[in-house]
Fold this sequence. Notes:
118 residues; mainly alpha; 5 helices; 0% strand
Amino acid sequence: MDLMDLADNLDREEQRYVREGFENDEELSLYDMLFREDLSKADIKKLKEVAASLLKKIKAKITELDHWTDKQETKAAVDNLIRDELWAELPKCYDEISISEYRQRIYEYVYTRYSVAA
């Protein structure tokens, strides 16, 4: 039964990322990390674009860097990319404090998920 429940949950998550307009569950994960309840429809649309774009840029940056988690400079390059993209692209309702928190959350996700390669 547990295995059937797990399969059902995976199917629902897969359906969700397709329904939300994402190419994969990674984009959905970034979107979920950035999502807030007080967003307008326009902000949600923008947030979806930011999540998809940010993931592509992070993966591209990681592929440029040799063992990116081994050196402080390369870790900083990825962290700075995340910071710059969030500052430039998030809807205006995100303030400095929330951007900093989201930046940290996304960096930790990326570090854990892509510590070897994208």
